[in-house]
Design a protein that fits this description.
Layout (H helix, E strand, L loop, with lengths): L15 E3 L4 E3 L5 E3 L3 E18 L3 H16 L3 E6 L3 E6 L8 E5 L2 E5 L11 E5 L1 H22 L2 E18 L14 E3 L4 E6 L2 E8 L3 E7 H7 L5 H8 L9 E9 H4 L9 H19 E3 L17 H7 L20 H17 L8 H22 L1 H15 L4
Antiparallel strand pairs: 1-4, 2-3, 4-9, 4-10, 5-6, 6-7, 7-8, 8-9, 10-15, 11-16, 12-13, 13-14, 14-15
């Protein structure tokens, strides 16, 4: 049985600061000076299962109608502007346990027509990384619960299914920590993996399945895999640019099996909020520890001293995690990548018109004419379909909840 959570209600934002190194070369060979390390923490992913009891099936019937339209039109999804001012894309397909899938940015809702008192949840809510940070997972989740009530849905049961707790150490270079040395770890997770891109250290992972720890270079991850997230995290970290300094992330991923093992089970989102400090304590004290030196496995490991970096990890305060940035809309696609694709296509298309490679004005004129003609043709051929496609793309780009 996992230790009992400590109840708390303090909503004040807490920032931890501690000095680290001086400066190191980054992956491009530039020297970035390490600043005093700032810790910013938040939930990075949240999945919640709900059992909803509906007053009637009118909402689900509307989802069925829209799903059928998507199948008839042979499109991946159709836009749905529904009561309460929410915009979703309704998918043409479902999953094994859920008939209907609604998406908006990185927020997903999955519905089925099962009974509210059955074993299988009737709704699954998934809030992705970007939305957890901006506008904030708690803000979105509370909005969704109110929206379910507006539609005639009453929450009968609520269970947090998965949560990721992330702490970003701004100014800490992962290459200075020696976390790849397994002999310095005391851990319950059996799996220990080192992740590298050629000779560059991306990070490590410990454990698998219900509980896993990942420590990785967050700046590198944003650069290589998630460019659309860069502005969000630059803002969350208080930086002008996402790659202004080193950032090392410590992230625990916990699933239902672990959450249910606490003495006071973590079922609701409020249970989770009240238990975050205890969850973090269990993860960083009992389940995994990074030690100051190589651990002597033949002696009592409880006497091994924590590394200075791990002392910072342990001391993180998890109250006030709902104090997240909420201003402005967050984009869930990267404009720079899209513009790069458009430039390449425009250059290639211009060559079909026998343009001289040095005639920039002619190249631009051709690109403008082709794009303008194609968009105009699409609009005139089927104005309704054009507008529908624009709404779908808008719902992919922004969270409209």
């Amino acid at each position: 049985m996992v230790q009992s959570p400590d109840k708390k209600s303090n909503r004040k934002r807490t920032i931890l600061r501690r000095k680290t190194g001086t400066g190191h070369e980054d992956r491009e060979g530039r020297t970035r000076v390490s600043r005093p390390s700032t810790v910013v923490r938040n939930l990075d992913y949240l999945k919640v299962n709900l059992w909803l009891e509906w007053e009637d099936d009118s909402f689900l019937s509307e989802l069925e109608r829209l799903k059928n339209i998507a199948q008839v039109q042979d499109v991946d999804a159709v836009p749905y502007h529904c009561p309460g001012g929410f915009d979703w894309n309704v998918s043409r397909t479902g999953t094994k346990h859920y008939t209907y899938i609604l998406t908006s940015g990185d927020v997903s809702l999955l519905f089925n027509r099962r009974h509210a008192h059955g074993v299988v949840p009737t709704v699954r809510v998934e809030i992705g990384s970007v939305s957890c940070w901006k506008p904030g997972y708690l803000y979105l989740y509370e909005r969704l619960i109110k929206w379910f009530r507006l539609l005639g849905g009453k929450v009968v049961q609520e269970k947090v299914s998965e949560v990721h707790l992330a702490a970003d150490f701004i100014g800490t270079d992962i290459n200075t920590l020696d976390i790849i040395n397994d002999d310095r770890w005391i851990r319950k997770g059996h799996k220990f993996k080192i992740h590298k891109d050629r000779r560059n250290l991306e990070g490590i992972s410990i454990g698998k399945g219900d509980l896993m720890l990942r420590i990785y270079d967050k700046v590198y991850e944003l650069k290589m895999k998630s460019p659309h997230k860069q502005p969000v995290f630059a803002e969350a970290w208080g930086l002008k640019r996402f790659n202004e300094t080193h950032v090392t992330r410590v992230e625990y991923q916990l699933k239902r099996e672990i959450l249910s093992q606490f003495q006071e089970k973590i079922n609701t989102v409020q249970d989770l909020l009240d238990s975050l400090q205890s969850v973090w304590k269990y993860c960083t004290h009992n389940w995994s520890r990074f030690c100051k030196s190589v651990v002597n496995r033949n002696h009592n490991q409880t006497h091994a001293r924590n590394d200075d970096f791990w002392m910072m990890v342990v001391k993180i305060i998890w109250s006030g995690v709902d104090d997240i940035i909420r201003s402005g809309k967050t984009k869930h696609k990267d404009m720079d990548s899209l513009r790069k694709q458009m430039r390449g296509l425009a250059m290639t298309i211009s060559l079909f018109f026998d343009v001289h490679p040095e005639d920039l004005d002619h190249i631009i004129a051709i690109a403008q004419r082709v794009i303008g003609d194609d968009l105009t043709q699409l609009y005139r051929e089927d104005e309704y379909d054009f507008i529908e496609r624009m709404h779908r793309k808008k719902n992919e780009l922004f969270v409209n909840v």
